[in-house]
Amino acid sequence: MAAWAKNGERDAGILNFKHEPLNDCAYGLELADGTLWELSGDDTVNNWLGELARIMGLARVSKKPTNTIYFHGVEDLLNPSFHTKPHFGDRVSENGWKSFKNGAIHRVWRHDQIPEIHVELHQAFLDHEEIRYINMWSVLRELHRHALWLGGTPVHATLAALEGKGVLVAGAGGTGKSTCYSRFPDYWDRLCDDQALILHVGDGNFRVHPFPTWSDYLWRKSEKQWHVERSVPLQAVFFLEQASKDDVLPLNDPSEAVLKTLEAAKQVWEPVWSRVERKEKSAQSALLFDNVTRMAQTVPAYRLCATLDGKFWKEVERVFFSKEFNAIRTQKD
Questions:
Q1: Which side of the chain, N or C, has fewer Cβ within a 10 Å radius?
Q2: Structural domain of residue 241, as residue ranges?
Q3: H/E segment holding residue 327
Q4: Are 276 and 191 within one domain?
């Protein structure tokens, strides 16, 4: 996988990682674009990685991956003189590795030409009641970067599916996305209520994966499992507004759909951009704008006006089964 050389990431110098996959601690995450990510690590992270795999509904990896994220438990990330050297099986490389450090939480090593990512985790926080989940939340941003590079993006939105076809419900904080998620009737598949990963799978088609609601683990001690590997074709995006009447109105101005989708994506990216160099933020935000613009050209967008106690999903279904909507989707397919 190609990756950007990040401004502000320092060259690795002399490093010392040993990539020795443990058969009992290697999990597979297959994405809709055909990539298979192996999540594995050394024996210091077994329990932490097992919990991450449980939350995301991942099984043990059973075939050769295309990409790898390898986790290392490190005793002292606070020590600025701490250096190691990457060893990948029988392949040793000292050049081209760059790192990004997130305080004492973790440090990520990436290479422009090698589809492996190495993440150092501060051992003292692996069992911390909250920080262990913050680490899980943070390291999945490597998948966000992958999606962005290939034409997609993560978005802050609810994902639900009807007859195997997905719709996103996005909106500013406090508009009621989670409430809408909980109110979809049982014949809808409720896939996630906080964050979804959009992947471009070619020819203007996009598929969406549900991602965990990490706040549930941080503050509500949730035991819920999310089936992250499941993806659905993205059929439409609905931008939620509180209203006195349930209704759905098309966004006929493409620029409005771009700006609203961009805002939903930036809610995920802004925490990342607050910690990176300006040059990196500019590169990613430019690519994000291009991706969202292409998405708006092929994925129908609507304004969803929803009341507190009405049947908003009936309005979504009215559009979903309309001749006009299906004509658009048929023409696209």
A1: C
A2: 153-332
A3: helix 323-332
A4: yes
